[in-house]
Write a structure and sequence with these properties.
This protein is of the alpha/beta class.
């Protein structure tokens, strides 16, 4: 039976199951959803059990949307919304999604916009036929989020066609015969960087991550040129665990060379990876490096992105279902759980995990309905990898800053824009508000401000304590007045030349480019100043060389070779990492429910992958392996 036959059968069942008074204008597959379009959405809404019963009969997730012909014009709809919702709700933004018939209303006071028992929402739906959604307005408007929403609105017709094409491919049915499940290590195994794995069954090819190793001049790309991967048109889906470039940096390249399928990730991951990919192009161009793709290919990623939240399950191929769970690493980071076949096999990919409640996130989830195997990171899986607690890290940072400020020096903190920046910001705000360090200005340079704005757009992804602090007490530490945004070259130069003490958080985190280099070149020779590393420094990066104590450095500065004498204090403040250390990794696996039969280790230097693999096997009596890149493991 073809996909068209299945759809025709579903249409017949639907039309035969609903009252004649309910007008069904069309039925389409859109991604994993079966979408029913109706010219009488209010009548559908009155029959509350209708959709539930249809979903049960057809064994499909069903969504009812108003037919595009009954949607009120966008400009008129916006006027009506503003007339219905009282001014004291303080609407900050209204944006429409024509491809799904939804309108999202941002308001400073969501309760006032919703009305008693949803009365105002019902009135909006009744008057304009768009489905309204109310969200709390972010305190900092993100340019990235705004542009992505605007682009998706502009591309709504094409987006709808893309979803219908994905839907037809997804519902093509499964083959008969031998079943198998295997994974192919394409990058990020026995190394950190260029993470990429293929999950392969008899009916599906799914790529998990497609990263780039920005610290490598020769082996920066994963092995996506293998015959198992090519042609890219044969891939069913790409799943991205989180937004760091070593996990998503080469994703747009797939679209450059023929891929046209879906990308699955959480909404914050979509926005953050767009920000980081655009910055990657900018940095590569400024360093006169080869640029592997263009901004047009990043827009293709956005267009094909299907964003799903934690705990939501969706079909991504005829025989694979995907569920995202919190990984605790950065905003929107996910452990991806794949349910293969009708109970044939379950495998999870941890992505990068933090099995501890941090200042920003709840601990990584390690309880699943079923799991036979898991691929786990091992960045800090070595025998000596024990990180201080968050409290100890705070004390260490406090001592470093106090010492430097007493000498009238400056503190330079190279940070990743996403994750580490916001954690350090929260700690600094707390130290200043409790008067444990003087109230010096904290300058944010690079993408930090924009990344922080994206954090404020998704408060539901932050930990329970921070959410409570923001919503119930109205106190958001990321908005403290001690933070100053560096928004121009002139402002940066003024800070660099200023003699007053200060703290600067600047990208990039491993010092392989970015504004951090401008501060470093001027401040490195002054022994009163300090440089503080709060994140992982990969082999081959300038950050690793400095961290190891190099005092004479030769740098390429825009084509000119310069020599730098390192006199500033070098400090490493462990405990801010978004990765679990050895103890936490063992705890994560030991407390997993259910206990997996097999663990595959990657995302770590070779010695660390092998060490943690051996330890887990001996301690917990679980089958473990640390494969090399290009190895294939058959699971079923």
């Amino acid at each position: 039976m073809t996909v068209d036959d299945v759809l025709r059968e579903f249409k017949g069942t639907i039309r035969g199951s609903i009252p004649a008074s309910v007008d069904v204008s069309d039925v389409e597959f859109e991604g994993a959803l079966l979408v029913i379009y109706t010219k009488t959405p209010d009548r559908f809404a009155k029959n509350k059990d209708l959709v539930k019963n249809l979903a049960k009969t057809l064994q499909k997730r069903i969504v009812v949307r108003p037919d595009p012909t009954v949607l009120t014009d966008i400009d008129l709809s916006e006027k009506k919304i503003r007339n219905i919702i009282p001014k004291d709700a303080e609407i900050t933004n209204i944006y429409f999604q024509p491809d799904v018939g939804e309108v999202t209303i941002e308001a400073l006071k969501p309760g006032a916009a919703i009305g008693k028992e949803g009365q105002l929402l019902n009135e909006i739906r009744k008057q304009i036929n768009w489905t309204p959604k109310i969200i709390r307005a972010p305190p900092i408007q993100s340019k990235t989020v705004g542009e992505i929403r605007g682009y998706l609105r502009q591309m709504s017709d094409e987006r709808k066609e893309i979803l219908q094409r994905i839907g037809k491919k997804l519902h093509r049915g499964v083959s008969v015969g031998e079943k198998y499940v295997r994974i192919i290590a394409l990058g990020g195994f026995r190394e950190v960087g260029r993470s990429c794995t293929m999950l392969h069954t008899q009916d599906s090819k799914v790529l998990i991550d497609c990263g780039i190793d920005v610290s490598s001049e020769t082996n920066g790309s994963p092995y996506i040129h293998l015959p198992e991967v090519l042609p890219f048109e044969a891939l069913d889906a790409v799943v991205i665990t989180h937004a760091h470039l070593d996990h998503c940096g080469l994703l747009p390249l797939l679209y450059k060379y023929g891929y046209s399928g879906p990308v699955y990730c959480t909404p914050p991951t979509r926005d953050l990876m767009t920000l980081l990919q655009m910055d990657y192009l900018k940095v590569a161009a400024s360093d006169a490096k080869k640029i592997p793709y263009s901004s047009e290919h990043i827009r293709s990623v956005i267009k094909h992105c299907i964003a799903i939240g934690y705990g939501d399950t969706t079909d991504i191929t005829p025989d694979i279902r995907l569920t995202f769970h919190n990984a605790g690493h950065i905003l929107g980071s996910s452990t991806c759980h794949f349910h293969i076949g009708e109970g044939l096999y379950n495998i999870a990919f941890s992505g990068d995990i933090k099995y501890e409640r941090t200042w920003l996130f709840n601990p990584a989830v390690n309880h699943f309905p079923r799991v036979e195997a898991i691929v786990v990171e091992s960045t800090y899986g070595g025998r000596e990898d024990h990180q201080p607690s968050r409290r100890e890290a705070t004390e260490r940072l406090k001592d470093i800053i106090r010492t430097s400020l007493k000498k009238k020096g400056k503190v330079l903190v190279p940070v990743f824009a996403v994750g580490r920046s916001q954690e350090v910001m929260i700690v600094l705000e707390n130290l200043v508000s409790t008067k444990e360090i003087p109230p010096v200005p904290v300058y944010l340079d690079g993408m930090i401000w924009e990344a922080t704005a994206i954090h404020t757009a998704y408060p539901e992804y932050l930990n329970t304590k921070l959410r409570s602090q923001i919503f119930q007490r109205g106190d958001n530490p990321l908005l403290s007045e001690i933070f100053k945004r560096v928004d121009s070259v002139e402002m940066r130069e003024k800070i660099i030349q200023d003699t007053d003490p200060c703290v600067v958080l600047a990208t990039s985190g491993m010092m392989n480019g970015g504004p951090v280099m401008e501060y470093f070149k001027t401040w490195a020779s002054d022994e009163r100043n300090s440089i503080v590393f709060v994140g992982y420094q990969a082999e081959g990066t300038l950050g690793r060389r400095i961290q190891r104590g190099s005092r004479e450095l030769t740098l390429n500065d825009g084509g000119n070779i310069i020599n730098i004498q390192m006199n500033m204090q070098i400090d490493t403040c462990d405990g801010f990492s978004g990765h679990s250390d050895r103890r936490q990794l063992i705890g994560y696996i030991n407390n997993m429910s259910p206990r997996p039969e097999r663990i595959i280790f990657g995302h770590g230097e070779e010695s660390k992958c092998l060490d943690i693999s051996s330890t887990i096997h001996k301690k917990l009596n679980i089958n473990t392996v640390a494969p090399m890149n290009l190895e294939c493991i058959r699971l079923v």
